[in-house]
Design brief:
106 residues; alpha+beta; 25% strand
Length: 106
């Protein structure tokens, strides 16, 4: 019984650390937003579409919630200058507000 419980705990810890769980995932294909998983604000979607239409590329953007705030990860195909432009328009405040509300409710 204890070995089964130990294996279950190890499996849960492994799943929580290994499984990729971004709060926002955006797939971009040929300069257009192809798929969005998670909540994206209308203003960020508009600004993102404007940026990627001027510099078309294929790639993806993921945003992760961490204790210190939001971390944005780009695929290697996203140009460096475009990454910075996307970071400049990313609505960190709206995602951080949701994070602080969750902390207050806990």
């Amino acid at each position: 019984m204890t070995t089964v419980l130990f294996i279950a705990v190890v499996a849960i810890i492994f799943w929580l650390t290994v499984v990729d769980r971004p709060i926002l995932k955006v797939h971009i294909t040929k300069g257009h937003i192809d798929k969005v998983k998670g909540h994206i604000t209308p203003s960020f979607q508009h600004n993102l579409q404007e940026i990627i239409s001027k510099t078309p590329f294929d790639g993806q953007i993921k945003a992760y919630r961490q204790r210190t705030g939001i971390k944005i990860i780009f695929s290697s195909s996203v140009p460096k200058n475009v990454r910075q432009r996307i970071r400049n328009v990313f609505p960190f405040s709206s995602y951080n507000a949701n994070l602080s509300r969750k902390r207050q409710n806990s």
